Amino acid sequence: MKILSKEQVEAQLSSIQRDCKNDIFLDMEDIELITKDKDSVMIGVCENKSNNSSSKIITSIINDFENNRPPLTKLDGILVYFQVHSKYDTCMMLDAMEIVYNKYDNQSIDNQIYILFGTYCNDKLDIDYAKVTVFFALSKE
């Protein structure tokens, strides 16, 4: 888990390839919704090849974030990117996103957290492999 500048966030996002007809593409407006006017953005990246790999990855990244989150910050947005085979089970990604929503959606009325996700499909990957990149947008409390 590391903290990124806005330029580093943009570089990380631009390095995620988008060329498959099955991709769920996030455009710059989506990204701005998450990162605009935030004090910092933390990134977590993890990969796994197993049954329920997405859920295992998300759980690992969330635990790492919670253990390394800077004090006196509030979470304003989460952007999740899945890199998977085009035949990867979509339900596994949705199960992983359910973990995120259950943990962070509507934590408080005063602090709406935006949660978005996208995918990049690569048929050179194994069908049960997933790599997940999660961006956590933070503001000072």
Structure description:
By secondary structure, the protein is α+β, with helices and mostly antiparallel strands. It has one domain (about 1-140): Tubulin/FtsZ, C-terminal domain (60s Ribosomal Protein L30, Chain: A), CATH 3.30.1330. The protein contains 4 helices and 5 strands, in the order E-H-H-E-H-E-H-E-E. The protein has helices at about 5-15, 30-35, 55-70, 90-105, and strands spanning about 1-5, 40-50, 75-85, 115-120, 130-140. Strands 1-2-5-3-4 form a 5-stranded mixed beta sheet, with helices on both faces.
Features of the shown structure:
about 140 residues; 60s Ribosomal Protein L30, Chain: A; alpha+beta; 5-stranded mixed β-sheet
What are the segments in which pLDDT stays under 50 over at least 5 consecutive residues? none
Q: Please provide the count of β strands.
A: 5
Count of distinct structural domains: 1
Overall 3D form:
globular
Strand order of the largest sheet: 1-2-5-3-4
Rg on CA atoms, Å? 14 Å
